[in-house]
């Protein structure tokens, strides 16, 4: 199977779509960090809307300060997608 070497979450979804586009009835299991899960779901559900997907958020072991920074980043990114749309 091909690799989806990408630079960001949107690029992940776009590259995954091109890899799985020739598979029939494929169920995708998307694994990401727990703090990143909502944005991944939002992005993948837009780009891969016709695929059956299951999302798994793996618990982070980051220090609280670093985790809070990532959570704030995710909240801003989700808000931007919801307000401005997703460009890819």
Walk me through what this model shows.
This protein is of the alpha+beta class. It has one domain. The protein contains 3 helices and 2 strands. α2 links the parallel β1 and β2. The mean pLDDT is 93.
List the helices and strands and how they pair.
Elements: H1 9-20, E1 27-33, H2 37-47, E2 52-58, H3 64-84
Parallel strand pairs: 1-2
Helix pairs in contact: 1-2
Mean pLDDT: 93
The structure class reads alpha+beta
Radius of gyration: 14 Å
Classify the helix fraction into a percent range: 40-55%
Unreliable stretches: none
Number of domains: 1
What strand line-up does the widest sheet have?
Answer: 1-2
Number of extended strands: 2
**First CA to last CA: what distance?**
23 Å
Beta-sheet strand percentage?
A: 15-25%
User: What is the overall shape?
Assistant: globular
Question: What is the ordering of alpha helices and beta strands?
Answer: HEHEH
Instruction: Give a quick account of the main beta sheet: strands, pairing sense, barrel closure.
Output: 2 strands, parallel
Number of helices: 3
């Amino acid at each position: 199977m091909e690799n989806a070497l990408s630079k960001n979450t949107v690029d992940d979804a776009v590259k995954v779509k091109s890899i799985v586009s020739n598979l029939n009835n494929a169920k995708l299991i998307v694994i990401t960090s727990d703090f990143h899960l909502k944005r991944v779901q939002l992005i993948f559900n837009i780009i891969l809307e016709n695929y059956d997907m299951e999302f798994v958020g793996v618990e982070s072991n980051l220090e609280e300060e670093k985790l809070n920074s990532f959570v704030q980043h995710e909240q801003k990114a989700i808000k931007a997608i919801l307000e401005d749309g997703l460009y890819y």
